[in-house]
Amino acid sequence: MPVTDQNYKDSDDLNMKSNIRKSTGQIAQYLGSNLLGDTGKIITGVAPFEDSSPHDITLVGDVHFLKKLDKTLAGAVIVPESFKGVEGLVAHGRSVFPVKNPRAAWAMVMQLFYPPFHPQWGMSNSAHKGKNFICGKDPNIGPFAVIGDNVIIGDRVVIYPHVYIGEGAVLGDDVTIYANVTIGDGTKIGSRVIIQPGTVIGSDGFGFAPDGEKWTKIPQLGIVQIDDDVEIGASNTIDRATFGKTLIGSGVKTDNQVHIAHNVTVGDNSLLVAQVGIAGSVTIGKHVILAGQTGVAEHLTIGDGAIIGPASGVAKDVPDKAVYSGAPAQPHRHWLRVQNVVATLPELKKRILKLESLVAGKTDSGESEKD
Amino acid sequence: MPVTDQNYKDSDDLNMKSNIRKSTGQIAQYLGSNLLGDTGKIITGVAPFEDSSPHDITLVGDVHFLKKLDKTLAGAVIVPESFKGVEGLVAHGRSVFPVKNPRAAWAMVMQLFYPPFHPQWGMSNSAHKGKNFICGKDPNIGPFAVIGDNVIIGDRVVIYPHVYIGEGAVLGDDVTIYANVTIGDGTKIGSRVIIQPGTVIGSDGFGFAPDGEKWTKIPQLGIVQIDDDVEIGASNTIDRATFGKTLIGSGVKTDNQVHIAHNVTVGDNSLLVAQVGIAGSVTIGKHVILAGQTGVAEHLTIGDGAIIGPASGVAKDVPDKAVYSGAPAQPHRHWLRVQNVVATLPELKKRILKLESLVAGKTDSGESEKD
Amino acid sequence: MPVTDQNYKDSDDLNMKSNIRKSTGQIAQYLGSNLLGDTGKIITGVAPFEDSSPHDITLVGDVHFLKKLDKTLAGAVIVPESFKGVEGLVAHGRSVFPVKNPRAAWAMVMQLFYPPFHPQWGMSNSAHKGKNFICGKDPNIGPFAVIGDNVIIGDRVVIYPHVYIGEGAVLGDDVTIYANVTIGDGTKIGSRVIIQPGTVIGSDGFGFAPDGEKWTKIPQLGIVQIDDDVEIGASNTIDRATFGKTLIGSGVKTDNQVHIAHNVTVGDNSLLVAQVGIAGSVTIGKHVILAGQTGVAEHLTIGDGAIIGPASGVAKDVPDKAVYSGAPAQPHRHWLRVQNVVATLPELKKRILKLESLVAGKTDSGESEKD
Questions:
Q1: How far apart are CA A258 and CA A214, in angstroms?
Q2: Is residue C185 a contact partner of residue C165, using CB atoms and an 8 Å limit?
Q3: B-C interface: how many C-beta pairs under 8 angstroms?
């Protein structure tokens, strides 16, 4: 075989290579942050705390990291503004970036050093382009992609191989559609949207009218609209509306294997974690978080800022900012209190049996109880 | 960028365009229904109650709609036969179709005005056709579809781009396979079957024999058979049988992300809602409804006409026509009674504590209880 | 239409055809097992107990089969070493293979008679090969497969149509990738790995840093590594690590629609049943079984040999060899005891009411209770 151990080893770091070099001063400018220590240090990458080299920048999340400063070789560190220990870090030769939101700064520095990597296909000759295709600047369209008639795409759009884009779809600027994604006809997608592989947008909603023992298909005539800055995970399914639109608001992020039925609205900046399922005509507010494997029954409303715990079953409306858990989903604190009692039920049952004995004036009820 | 606000707006109505014109008399004939009011009115589309124009037909489901008749401009309405208020509608200039099953009639009128839209590829030169491919009349096969050796398909079959059809598969007439679907070798599909995008039919069943710490693959030698008038949702997985067949009966409809394991039988006209998972060798009766996220353990039987509530865990057989809920699934009424008590458990526990105090002859048990 | 009833019937047995003929003596040699009865009998296939012909070999799992020996015509049978009844089988003209592990032997005999079937594409001209593609012996690469730059694959690799293999991926020998699979850049795959259709390997992990109301993408720089002898089911999603690798140990088998988040490690020979979801940075031990629809919360550890029941919600670490069930997951025996009491809660509540009446010195509490 042509594959050697070295081949496996080489590829290990493939995604970690960066040819980008920035001085600590440039990074401070990029972040709009203060900088303590050496402003001219050259940084060439980002790394986790314990795996850093002197040319890496890393994240020091809290004071616990101070105790293990000898574990990192990082030349530069991002810390919270409130961090007590900046002087120690500088004394140890680090360049220090105190910021308001360290995790967001860390994410932005990673974006700086590791811009998205895509193969450069230009406009592949092996892609199928439909009639009246209107294409923005610098397209990057892979082999065997299929673009339907009357499609319009913005600038710098990346379309991976085996993507199908249905008739009349509209995509904004800087959209990335990974491999094996299906985009149904009429879908509207904003700018800076990322769709991970294997996802289906614009499949028919699950609409059937009972007619005796059989089911008559209700044609699904609406579309899916995905607003700016959305990221859709791998192998999601988002159905087109019966009439009108299924709407994914701007800034929404979905994890893998999320299902969104017809006529659902997901408000701006909400997070849907893996394997969430949302039934038809549900309205989800802004900045909502649905934890993994949660289901939401049809026609419900989840208020702005609500958080629903994992594997919950939402069976009625949820107010703004509420924290719910369980199946059926209920206020998290009540659910916790109930769960605490549930866990002690066998013992509670024994106490009831004992009470029954005592009340009956017997110390031995004679009952043989298996629980 | 070449995408304008007008582009987004234009595409909004893409799927709603219909060039079909029918008189109300023609619609009555198509539905086989009575018609009151103008029989010569021209109808050009179907719309929801509040979004209708005078050339639209809409649905008036019950008398509550009567109160808001001023909210619709629809020129024609479908109503239940029992509807009290037909005269009022006719007096307001509507053509009225009283029918036994309004939702089914509504679905059929939508089918009349909005026949399925598919790009017209004919037999694409960019598709790959295997040896001994036998193809019916009027095929519509998209670019980069791959059809294996010895495949037979009926008339008017639509195969979207990036579909893979394995060796020896047989498809009936009027079948539609959307993009990025995989059909394993030997799969049998009836007529008028629709398979939404991203679905996998005929993957290997999950069969492994333990051999010490390791697992030995049990080859999966059977097939999947899908009967007439089935619709399979997006991103389903239906495994081939170990021996024999996994069988999806006629008229079955599945929602998105449904998983059906090897050797399962799903009876005619059953509905499987999104994210349902069915383990191996389960037999599901006819006209069963499994609500979303429900799981069924292996080798069980679910009787004809049974209904299983959302996110249930079916752990033993379910009788005909039973309504079950919960995990483990149990008769719905019992489950409701149990859930009602569960919700009050913290309060019940306090009552038990109080009883214990009283029985012990004390009013203060001295116990510090946190629940 | 060109499809006849005979076409449907013909294809029924497509996968069951085997041109392989072996004597019972050859099979004993292959299994390394004893053989009683005729050693020269020719066997041409494997079949279930009741569907066997005299040239088939079948499995007799336990003594219950002895009572219905007249139901099988099989010429050869695999039995457990401990099986009491070998003489009866031999007397009835069967060749008998007593083995330590009958199911594993049965699986191996099936592998012998039914080696994996794949179309023979060789290196399809319609596949897209990137720069510096290093390809082992006897490749079998289907039409419209796309292989990125700097990919290395071993000998006898099968790549179905519409597979996308990202830049720098490395695959070992005897790997099979079914249709419509996406393999992200940098993925490392060992030898004898099978990936069922529609699966996504190496999508971005779900990593976003909160920044006010918005979410900033955390670039996902790591890879996915899949070791030898792994089988991944259909429509799985396995995310790349943020840094480092998401690791699927050797011999792991996953069912369909399994989700594995970034930085997860799955230990050797573990089984993940359908629709399991594993959150980020979870460590799963060796030879663990997660039953269907189970979820595991982030950063947890599940010990070697643990078994988690179906639809469980793992919310804290699980020790080695533990058997857990429920949501939240807990020791299975405790969960069973709790569930038994839960099922009787309405009756328990009545008993509490009765106690309250008795203790209050009344026989009728006057309370009207609906549960």
A1: 29
A2: no
A3: 235
The minimum CA-CA distance between C231 and chain A, rounded to whole Å, is: 19
CA-based nearest residue in chain B for residue C103: B209
Q: Do B200 and C15 touch (CB under 8 A)?
A: no
Mean pLDDT over C93-120 rounds to: 95
Q: Could you give the count of Cα atoms lying within 13 Å of C14 in the half-sphere of its Cβ?
A: 30
Which of B296-305, C24-33, C63-72, C138-147 is the least confident region? C63-72
The confidence score (pLDDT) of residue B61 equals: 76
The owner of tokens 């490395």 is C170
Low-confidence ranges of chain A (pLDDT < 70): 1, 9-17, 362-371
Degrees (nearest 5) of the Cα angle B361, B362, B366? 145
Specify the CATH class of C5-113 in words: alpha beta
Alpha carbons C196 and C198: distance in angstroms, whole number:
7
CB atoms closer than 10 angstroms to residue A257 = 30
Mean pLDDT value across residues B235-263: 97
The predicted model scores a pTM of: 0.95
Residues 6+ apart with CB under 8 A from C87: none
Is the domain covering B16-113 a CATH 3.40.1390.10 domain? Answer: yes
What is d(CA B152, CA B150) in angstroms, rounded to the nearest whole number?
7
Cα distance between residue A261 and residue B173, in whole Å: 29
What's the CATH class of domain A128-333? Answer: mainly beta
Amino acid at residue number C165:
I
**Chain-chain contact of B16 with A146 (C-beta, under 8 angstroms):** no
Question: Within chain C, which residue ranges are assigned CATH 2.160.10.10?
Answer: 128-333
The pLDDT value recorded for residue C364 is 44
CB-based contact B143 A128, cutoff 8 Å: yes
CB nearest B104 (choices: A168, A198, A210): A210
Strands A301-302 and A323-325: unpaired
Using CB atoms and an 8 Å cut-off, which of residues 65-94 of chain C contact chain B? Answer: none
Q: 């533990």: which residue's tokens?
A: C322
- Give catalytic residue positions of C: 262
Residue % of chain C over a pLDDT of 90:
84
* Positions of CATH 3.40.1390.10 in chain B: 16-113
Residue A49 contacts C, CB cutoff 8 Å: no
Find the farthest-apart pair of alpha carbons in chain B and give their distance in angstroms, rounded. Answer: 92
Pick from B47, B110, B352: CB nearest A351: B352
